[in-house]
Each structure stands twice: as C-alpha cells, then as structure tokens.
C-alpha cells in the first residue's frame, strides 16, 4: 500500500501513475493483497511463512508494533526460519536496536549459511554510526 502511495507522490512525473484510474486500480490491488494475506493467515494460523509475510506488510505500512509481533510469532512457530530472523533484524536496524539486529543476522547465518542478504545486511548494520 505504501509503495503505491509513494509512487503517486513521486517527484518525477514519469514515475507517477499515468491516470487517477491507474492509481485507484493499484490501490485496489494492494488492498486485495492485504486482505488475501489476512485470509491466508486465518486459514493457516500455524504457518510461520504467513506470519513473516504479514509482518513484512505491517512493516511496509509503518506499523512498528504489529510487525515485530508477527516476526516473533513466525519464529515461535519455526525457530529455524532464517528469513524471519533477517526480517526481524532489518526492522531492528530501522528502529535502532542494533545489538538485537546483529544477533538476529548472526542467527540467520548460523541457520542458513547461503543466505547472502543476512551477511550483507549484518555488514551494513555494523557500519552504522555507533557500531564501528
């Protein structure tokens, strides 16, 4: 949803929607995806992947309370879900929780040593002010 709004507000006209109708259609699609994800979560409440995706949607919308709750639930359901650790770590970096984020990136790497994004984001987090 946020991506649709940001595109509509883009500085460069070429990056915006070509018409109000196109903007409305994109909003409708984003709302349908969110509703679909809510439905899939209700159907499979024990699915860690659904909780991680749901958390990512909340994060994208700026809901900093529900996003970590869903990431935590994903990890409660599947403590070996490396991608959920990366998602929670990414949010932690945005919130300034660097120690927790670094621990989550490290755990993701321990669980899946082929997960390049965990290495990259951990390295970038270590370069942030106060982390060097």
Automatic annotation (TrEMBL):
Task: List the Pfam families hit by this protein, alphabetically.
Answer: TPR_11 (PF13414), TPR_8 (PF13181)
Mapped TPR repeat ranges: 48-81, 82-115
Show the InterPro entries listed in the entry: TPR-like_helical_dom_sf (IPR011990), TPR_rpt (IPR019734), Ycf3 (IPR050498)
Provide GO CC annotations from the record: cell outer membrane
- Is Plastid a UniProt keyword of this protein? no
Q: Which SMART domains match?
A: TPR
What are the alphabetically sorted keywords of the record? Repeat, TPR repeat
The processes (GO biological process) annotated in the record are:
receptor-mediated virion attachment to host cell
Q: Which domain of life is it from?
A: Bacteria
Give the signal peptide as a residue range, or say none if absent. none
Q: Which PANTHER family match?
A: TETRATRICOPEPTIDE REPEAT PROTEIN 6, UDP-N-ACETYLGLUCOSAMINE--PEPTIDE N-ACETYLGLUCOSAMINYLTRANSFERASE SPINDLY-RELATED
Q: What is this protein called?
A: Uncharacterized protein
Organism of origin is: Thermogemmatispora tikiterensis
Upper lineage is: Bacteria, Bacillati, Chloroflexota, Ktedonobacteria, Thermogemmatisporales
